[in-house]
C-alpha cells in the first residue's frame, strides 16, 4: 500500500501506471456545506483592509409622560458592544509530474485528486460549525495549532447564562437550564428564553423570529426533532383532530461537524447538543457574520504558465480562500449543551 503523498508521481503511486488493471474509487463523500445558513454572509471587497468591525446600536423603547408646560423627555440612543473580524487565508496544493500526467491509466481519478474543489469550502464549513461546537468557551485551538478567540461582544463565550448589557445592570441567558436532551418539553424550555431573554442594551424587551432548530447528526436527536416537527395524528385515531403546533414553525439544520474535535474527529461528548436560532433575517436575527474576502477558487496550471516548474515539468494545482468569522451577540441563538 502506498503512503500518502503530496507529489503525484509514477514511483510513489505506481498503481496508476503499472501493468495490473484496476478500478479506482474515490473514498466516500465530503461533508455537506450547511453551516453558512446560520450566518450573515458579508461579501467584502478588495482594498478595504483585512478587518471589519460590527457595532450594536440601541435606543429606548417607551415614551415618557409629558406634563403640562414641561419639556419632553429626550430619548437615549447608545452604541452597544462591538466585535472585529479578521481575515484568514487558507490554501492547499498538490503537485503532479509530467510522467504521471502522461502515463497514468486512471485520468478521471487523477483529475479528481487535482481538482481541489473541496479543501477550502470544507475548511470554511468546519470553522463556522466550530463557533457553535466551542460555543461554551472563549478560545479554542484550531487544526493548525492556532489559538482562536471566539468571544462575543460582551467578552463572554457565545453560550452563557450571564450575558451582560452595556447600558443596564441586567443580564440574560441563551443557555437552556439543566441542558436537557431534545424533547417537546425541552423545546418549550428554549422557547421560554425567547420571551424572557431577548433584551436591548437598555434592558428592555425585544422580539426575534426563531425559525431554525440546529443539531448535530446524532440519529436519536435527529429522529426526535423530526417527530416533534412533523408528526401528525391519523384522522381516525384516538387523537383525531389534534394539531401539531410545531409543524412548519422551524426548519431543522443538521450540522455534521458539530460533535467533532478541532481536527474534525468525532467528539461524542457533544453529540446531543441542540438549539434554536433566528437566522436569515439580517440584523433582526442572530448577528453572526461570515465575511468573505476571497471565495474558494482554483489555481490551475497549464503548459508555460506559473503553475509549471520549468526545471522538471511538474504541475502544481492550488486552492485558495480568505474569510473571517465574527459573532457580535448571543441574542438570536439558544443552546442546550447536553452532557453525553
Percent in strands? 25-35%
Total number of β-strand segments?
15
Major sheet attributes: 5 strands, mixed
Series of H and E elements: EEEEEHHHEEEEHEHEEEEE
Main structural class: alpha+beta
- Number of continuous helical runs: 5
Mean pLDDT: 87
State the shape: globular
Helix proportion of residues, in percent? Answer: 10-25%
Order of the strands making up the biggest sheet: 1-5-14-13-2
Give unreliable regions as ranges: 13-27
CA-CA gap between termini: 38 Å
Q: Over the alpha carbons, how many angstroms does the gyration radius reach?
A: 26 Å
Give a topology summary.
Layout: E1 7-8, E2 40-43, E3 51-59, E4 77-86, E5 88-96, H1 98-103, H2 107-115, H3 118-133, E6 139-141, E7 147-149, E8 163-165, E9 168-172, H4 184-196, E10 212-215, H5 219-230, E11 251-254, E12 274-277, E13 288-299, E14 315-327, E15 333-336
Parallel strand pairs: 1-5, 2-13, 10-11
Antiparallel strand pairs: 3-4, 5-14, 6-7, 8-9, 10-12, 12-15, 13-14
Polypeptide structure, described:
The chain has 340 residues and is of the alpha+beta class. It is 16% helix and 26% strand. The chain has 5 helices and 15 strands. The protein has helices at 98-103, 107-115, 118-133, 184-196, 219-230; strands at 7-8, 40-43, 51-59, 77-86, 88-96, 139-141, 147-149, 163-165, 168-172, 212-215, 251-254, 274-277, 288-299, 315-327, 333-336. The radius of gyration is 26 Å and the shape is globular. The two termini are 38 Å apart.
Amino acid at each position: 500500500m502506498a503512503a500518502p503523498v503530496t507529489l503525484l508521481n509514477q514511483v510513489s503511486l505506481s498503481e496508476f501506471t503499472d501493468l495490473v488493471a484496476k478500478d479506482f474509487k474515490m473514498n466516500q463523500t465530503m461533508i455537506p456545506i450547511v453551516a453558512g445558513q446560520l450566518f450573515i454572509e458579508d461579501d467584502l471587497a478588495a482594498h478595504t483592509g483585512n478587518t471589519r468591525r460590527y457595532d450594536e446600536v440601541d435606543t429606548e423603547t417607551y415614551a415618557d409622560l409629558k406634563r403640562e408646560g414641561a419639556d419632553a423627555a429626550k430619548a437615549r440612543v447608545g452604541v452597544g458592544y462591538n466585535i472585529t473580524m479578521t481575515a484568514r487565508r487558507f490554501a492547499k496544493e498538490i503537485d503532479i509530474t509530467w510522467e504521471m500526467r502522461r502515463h497514468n491509466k486512471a485520468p478521471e481519478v487523477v483529475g479528481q485528486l487535482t481538482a481541489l474543489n473541496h479543501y477550502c469550502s470544507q475548511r470554511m464549513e468546519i470553522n463556522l460549525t466550530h463557533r457553535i461546537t466551542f460555543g461554551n468557551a472563549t478560545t479554542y485551538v484550531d487544526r493548525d495549532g492556532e489559538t482562536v478567540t471566539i468571544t462575543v461582544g460582551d467578552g463572554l463565550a457565545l453560550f452563557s447564562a450571564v450575558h451582560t448589557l452595556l447600558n443596564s445592570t441586567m443580564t440574560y441567558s441563551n443557555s437552556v437550564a439543566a441542558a436537557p436532551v431534545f424533547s417537546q418539553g425541552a423545546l418549550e424550555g428554549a422557547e421560554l428564553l425567547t420571551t424572557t431573554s431577548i433584551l436591548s442594551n437598555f434592558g428592555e424587551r425585544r422580539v426575534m423570529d426563531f425559525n431554525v432548530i440546529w443539531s448535530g447528526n446524532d440519529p436519536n436527536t435527529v429522529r426526535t426533532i423530526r417527530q416533534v416537527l412533523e408528526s401528525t395524528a391519523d384522522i381516525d385515531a384516538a387523537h383525531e383532530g389534534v394539531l401539531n403546533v410545531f409543524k412548519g414553525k422551524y426548519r431543522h439544520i443538521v450540522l455534521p461537524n458539530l460533535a467533532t474535535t478541532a481536527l474534525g474527529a468525532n467528539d461524542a461528548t457533544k453529540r446531543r447538543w441542540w438549539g434554536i436560532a433566528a437566522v436569515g433575517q439580517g440584523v433582526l436575527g442572530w448577528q453572526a457574520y461570515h465575511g468573505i474576502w476571497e471565495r474558494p477558487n482554483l489555481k490551475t496550471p497549464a503548459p508555460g504558465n506559473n503553475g509549471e516548474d520549468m526545471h522538471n515539468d511538474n504541475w502544481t494545482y492550488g486552492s485558495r480562500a480568505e474569510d473571517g468569522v465574527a459573532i457580535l451577540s448571543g441574542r438570536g441563538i439558544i443552546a442546550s449543551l447536553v452532557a453525553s
